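Take a specimen:
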Amino acid sequence: MKDGFLKVCACTPEIRVADCSFNADSIIETMFKAQKLGASVAVFPELCVTGYTCQDLFLQKLLLDGAVEALDKICRETESLSALFAVGTPLAVNGKLYSCAAVISKGKILGVVPKTSIPNYNEFYEVRHFSSAPEKNELISLCNQEVLFGKNLLFCCKEIPELVFGIEICEDLWTPSPRSTALALAGATLIGNLSASDEVIGKDSYRRSLVSNQSARLVCGYIYCSCGNGESTQDLVFSGHNLICENGAVLSESKLFENEITYSEIDLFKLAHERRRITTFPKADSFGFEKIYFSLPVSKTVLTRHFSKAPFIPSDMASLNERCDMILQIQSHGLKKRLEHTHAASAVIGISGGLDSCLALLVAVRAMDLLGRDRKDIIAVTMPCFGTTKRTRSNAELLCECLGVSFKEVNITKSVIQHFEDIGHDINEHNVVYENGQARERTKVLMDIANKTSGLVIGTGDLSELALGWATYNGDHMSMYGVNSSVPKTLIRHIIRYYADISHDDSLKSVLLDILDTPVSPELLPTDETASEMTQKTEDIVGPYELHDFFLYYFVRFGFSPQKILRIAKYAFEGVYDEAVISKWLNTFIRRFFSQQFKRSCLPDGPKVGSVTLSPRGDWRMPSDASSALWQII
């Protein structure tokens, strides 16, 4: 449970229809397997003690007594197991029969939850045997224990306040008002569903969508466990389709007809953060519910769930291409509106031959095309100085030529030298004054050209640079509209590659691919004018952008502590970076993120494209003088 990770399982054991003794042994064996896997919570299928497909045998007292005996055996033989188990069983209470979930821990039945929604359509005719859960909880005697019985039960972990477990059974989820909704509103963060869902064509996709969407709607973890191996195939076939979801994401899923244990880790701290963040998620109101407390040993959970090294980038190509296209549309429509509103005669962009200015130019081209205007209204300005290389200057010019925009070169070397003389700075002292003087001179040039042509300066800085403060204040930090302000560096590469892939112009494609192969650099330190390689590489100075984008995503989007980010980064980047390297750059990220907030507090406008943005008017508000002491990793 360290860092909020809770190992959970959906367990579909082999059963025999109506053979309660065999089923008890199979369930017990699977419980021990789940505990060995490190599970803290495990869910079994609906009516697995008897089998779901017993039909009219459910009306036989012998079967019902056998189910209670099996439940008693399960309790006796699992006293040594600390995990929380939810096991499906029929149970007669006050003259009526219910499909129930018995919640067991350390050999004790903590509570019994009966099913509420009893289906009686298509292949289902449960009303023939079972009753709906009564409205009120009550105390019953079961297996020589006094046990709470009712649908309004919450199982709360003493050691982990974020773990509140609620149960719904199969059809309870498929109704217009699922029980899990009431449970989540009462405070449940983890839902277990004991299910008996038969398999027909297309149902697995619908089921997956239903479970993942419900976990998203309720901002919860969800364990869906369905029956499979051993159920009767007289008229139906059950595949044991198990799902573990978290806030809309499918963390783990069984293959159809391959039964037993599906497991993953639910991040309870992340769910708690999301519920705090989403102001429309109501505060927990457990009125009418009874809380049953249990204990779990707190230990470090071994992680098996997937953490992508590139959380901003979809893993499959189709989704990635779709995202790239959507981002280009958002950016270009945002700029289109700004150009229309300001009646700008031109869009002025500083073009360096690097990634960011390349994307900004592509966006500007799309915006002009949307407006039906001549691309010559885009003025791309290259401003070589001490560190400009032949390669980037050439790529900048070729890119503009291919796109058909206006191209202008303004060599700022003399202006910067004059500026250094004016302020008494030694040109041989290559410090921050030397570098920032160039950046501010470039911004001045762009602003004045924009004024001269009644235009707007289009900012090129990206989200990753904003997070690190890797921008010169009132230099490249400033513009009149920042189209890349919420696009991370790792994603910019893919957008440009996507643009190259869909381009029908071989020359444009060639220059875009060369820009992609060019190392990221501010090009502010001296180099030979004819050189094709730069002497200054950004990632050598501030660290790999793939690490910083990883840090940024989990720090801002989910509020992870640096210690937790370090843990999952070690897991995600295993074999790529060792702990010392990750820790070094994580400390750099935290230090710069806090110290450079003042640059983000006065950012120009720019379109939000994803769930992480640092706009001071939008998703991120932070004091510029906040201390980073709590967040530093020693």
